[in-house]
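During the reporting period the student researcher (J.K.) took over the structure-prediction task from the postdoctoral fellow and processed the backlog of single-chain submissions. One of the processed entries is reproduced below for the supervisory committee.
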Amino acid sequence: FRRAGWLGRLRPLPGIIWMALLTTPWFVLITLKSDGAFWMASVGQDMVAKLASEQEGHGFPPGSYLLASLFTLWPWVLFLPLAAAYAWDRRHMPSVHFLIGWVLPFWMILEAVPTKLLHYPLPVYPGVLLLIAAAICKTAQIPQTFRGWISTSGAVLFLIGLAVHLVLLVGLP
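J.K. obtained the following structure tokens:
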């Protein structure tokens, strides 16, 4: 984490080139079609406003996405404590290092931004689920790992998510 040398081993240049080749035509066409108004409206007004203060009545405090994940990641929240323990224990492995680098910075930025919409953390969920899958596979090899505070907290998160689902199921038309 302390050195950026591992980023070079990811070889980002081919991906950046492909991204530029695939998106540049759209960027050019939207700029020409709207005479630049698209950029002023989407970036200059909408995005900056969402970063500065809550917009459209969707303001929630930091930690809201973590709380919402009890519902949006259900039933996999059962394994979140296991995945967190697995990630911490193996944080120096390149694959886990990559997943932590994918999930944590993005999640921290989302929690810091005042405007919160339920779909914003969706790009992070594959990384979280990969950590969960890796933790489950490792635990299958060592069954006694999923005991104590890890299994208890996972069960509590699972039950909270279940309760939220039941309340929504009964409460929503």
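The committee noted the following: The chain has eight helices and no strands.
J.K. will present the remaining backlog at the next meeting.
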